[in-house]
Amino acid sequence: MQPKFTINLRLTRLVAETSSLRERIAGSPVQVAWMPSLRREAAARNAMGSTAIEGFVLSLPEVRALASGKKIRRVLNMSERAVLNYIAALRYIQKNGSKKNLTGQDIRRLHTFIGEGAVEEGPVGRYRTVRNYVVDGTGSVVYTPPAPEEVPGLMDELLKWINEESGKYVPAISSGIIHYYIAAIHPFVDGNGRVARIAGTWELLRRKFDTLHIFSIDDIIYEHKRAYYTALENAGGREGDITGWLEFYLEVIAESLERAWKRILLLPKTAKTGKLTLTPKQEKLLTLLSETGDLSSAEIAQALKITVQGVHFIIKPLIEAHVVKRYGGRKTGKYGLSRRTKP
User: Fold this and answer.
1) Are 146 and 238 spatial neighbours (Cβ–Cβ below 8 Å)?
2) Percentage of the chain with pLDDT > 70?
3) What average pLDDT score do residues 29-50 get?
4) Strand pairing of 134-135 and 334-337?
């Protein structure tokens, strides 16, 4: 196996950008109390994004509730099972983040974690023995993966490359290559996208690129789902040029790191608790206050497209955690970032 791509100016810039952001995050003085919350949030966003790409759409609050570890006393639907499975797989790769060499059994184990009760076709944990196809929203075939009898050999080639060659590339590049080739080989009847994404994440862990586990990639891919599929399709299969795919993939990593960095900047320097988890609206509000300065309740309501009562609901936990503070008089007061929080 020999990946075909060109290190052009755009890829060079993205490699430098992702490396710089990663170093900034790794060197940030994040309080220990905040780390569990940041890690839970990253895991929830990864699980939400990767499963939503496959049509198992749950809201972020619903995913957080599932990820909380509380016992569920009812039958789970397939979307809920898919999310819980993905979280279990994330925990597995984090536990085995220092594993030096990967085997076919490792990849099949990932599929077992991900697929149990959450794939529509085929056995879990076993390479496919039937022909499969990738179709678009209209049911038209857009890609025909290799024949089933080729799968074991192609996966062995990929694993040989992972264990012997991937270290020659920066982690973001090798992660993108692994993600792409698993998707191209399509070794399982169903669940290939989820396996490809989590295997790419595992490479970032194994290569010590992701040491804090506080940034997520799959939720960003979900936001750019159409571009994601276009980048995969345009690469042209196992023999194609994957430069465009790697450009897309590194853009995703850069965006995920940038968002993680913003969350770090917006954390209070000293907090009463490390249990605050930002909702999407709260995250958007903090970014807004960081970029525009102090705002009134009416201005926030207009910007977030919510009611003034809704503003008070989402801002109260931020005030209690000393992330946001009210400045000015009762009638003319505005909300802004706590001066010790503001970047």
Assistant:
1) yes
2) 93
3) 79
4) unpaired
Spatial neighbors of 335 by CB under 8 A, at least 6 apart, are 289, 294, 295, 296, 297, 300, 315, 324, 325, 326, 327
How many C-beta neighbours within 10 Å does residue 203 have? 25
Helix (H) or strand (E) run with residue 335 in it: strand 334-337
- For helices 280-292 and 308-320, the axis angle rounded to 10 degrees is 80
Beta bridge partners of 230: none
Domain ranges within the chain, ordered by starting residue:
9-265, 280-337
Residue type, 202: W
pLDDT of 342 = 38
C-alpha–C-alpha distance, residues 229 and 45, integer Å? 20
Average pLDDT, the chain: 88
Judge residue 205's burial from the number of C-beta atoms within 10 Å of its C-beta, 0-12 exposed, 13-18 middle, 19 or more buried. Answer: buried
Other beta carbons within 10 angstroms of residue 74's beta carbon come to 6
| CATH code for the domain defined by 9-265 | 1.10.3290.10
CA 183 to chain centre: 17
CATH topology classification for 280-337? Arc Repressor Mutant, subunit A (1.10.10)
